[in-house]
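Hi everyone,

Forwarding the result from last night's run.
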Amino acid sequence: MEPINIIWLEGQGCTGCTISLTNSSKPSVTDILTGIIEPVSSINLVFHPAVMPSWGDQAIQILRDAEKGKYDPFVLVLEGAVPDEKTAGSGFWCMVGEDNGKILTLNHWIDALADKTAVAVAVGACATYGGVPHGKPNPTGAHGLLEHLGENWKSQLGLPVVCIPGCPPSGDWITQSLGALVLAVRGLASIPELDEHNRPKFLFEKYAHDNCPRAGYYSKGVFSDTFGEEHCVVGLGCKGLISKCPAPGSGWINGNGGCPTLGAPCLGCTEPSFPDEPVSPFLKPPDGVVMTKTIIQRIIGGLRQAYALQKRR
């Protein structure tokens, strides 16, 4: 297998996506980096500010070499939002190294490497659509990689920015998406189909509600009034009706967990609007059209249940 290098940049974020990645299990990041899974072997994580042994000028030299083509073909991964450095005045918002005392910003490296990358992947709510840093009033002008490069941008292989949202996304979503892209790059599988927000459809095609083990209570119109109850949590602010997310079905770590599964309301962190309306306020039920839809579905669900009972009799 021809080696594929990964350059992982961190912008305005909390490194939560990296921590989530270390908890991946299907497949695990260890399986990928050690080459146990042959079709996705020969993957080299050449730059990652949180885990690589290099530091200082040695670390920045890796990015300089990447700019010169030393690590082609490489996958550019971004974690964290991209600020608008034009609004920083005489200062800067996000620094990734320096060159003889000159500040090198995150924006500098994205712009320097974007046209050379085989695939560009945005990991997490911040990197995809701006996430928490771009929430109102957004003083740094934070935005995601998709907006920064543009929806019509294409990588060396003709691919748009691939978005894996979540705050953070499950580690398995990251490894499965990167694995699917590696297989596509190597001609072993088709390119993953993306939705209108550049999310891989095989993960983000369904709403969280569609995968939720509490959906049966929803259809019966039985809702939890307080945290800790076993019923549907839409009344506690769950945004699963309007958020496409696989967590309730796939679990979080080793197939276990997922926000609504464990009784926490979905906060809509996989949606481009996060953390603003309509997914906020987080603990307020969806309103307007969504709640009308909820009521109608409750009525229909009740009628179907009554009809099924009558039919059995």
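Strands lie at 4-10, 43-47, 74-79, 95-99, 102-105, 119-123, 162-164.

Cheers,
N.
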